[in-house]
Structures are given as C-alpha cells and as structure tokens.
Amino acid sequence: MDTHRPVVAHPSNIAWREAPIDLSVDALASLIRSTPDTERVTEIEQPTLAAARKAVEKHVKNTYLKSAQAPLGVKPVLKCWMELN
After folding, report:
1. CA-CA 20 to 30 A from 67: which of 3, 25, 31, 40?
2. Cα(18)–Cα(25) distance, integer angstroms
3. Are 61 and 76 in contact (CB under 8 A)?
4. DSSP string covering 29-59, please?
C-alpha cells in the first residue's frame, strides 16, 4: 500500500513559495522609506511627539555624547522617526 500522498499546492500559496524573501536592511528600508511629499499620519498628538523627541535627544546627549566625550556644541541628529501603534 502506498502511504505517500501527492503534495497539492493551493494556487494562492505558489507565488510566495517560489519568490525568495529578501530580509536585508536595504530591502526593508525601501519598504518603509518615505519622501518629503509623503502625507504624515499620526495617532499621537503633536505636543506629545515633540516631548518624546526632546526626551530622546536629552537621553542621547546625557549618555552617548558624554561617554564619547563629544566636543561642546555637537548635537545629535535624528535620522529616523516612526510612530508604531
């Protein structure tokens, strides 16, 4: 008796199985990168976001910049900001 059953692929599953998944940083960044004309949509109020950014910049200044003995006047540059809900 043959115990091996043929594998039947559902048509909706074929495409993702044939295409390799690229999880490199560049591939992921291209999926989330925006342009200056991209409409911004936020759930958190603007004053709350501004306070959060200020707190992050203060933390970087008081931890990383001090431990790296950065010269006076050097300010952190925010390269990425993403609201996750």
Report:
1. 25
2. 21
3. yes
4. HHHH---TTSPP--SS-HHHHHHHHHHHHHH
For residue 81, is pLDDT > 70? yes
Residue 38 has pLDDT above 70, yes or no: yes
Instruction: Calculate ∠ Cα 33-39-82, nearest 5°.
Output: 45
Would you say residue 60 has pLDDT above 80? yes
Using the structure block, give the residue that is written with the tokens 């993702």.
Answer: 16
* pTM for this model (two decimals): 0.52
Residue 7 has pLDDT above 60, yes or no: no
What is the CB-side half-sphere exposure of residue 80 using CA atoms within 13 A?
5
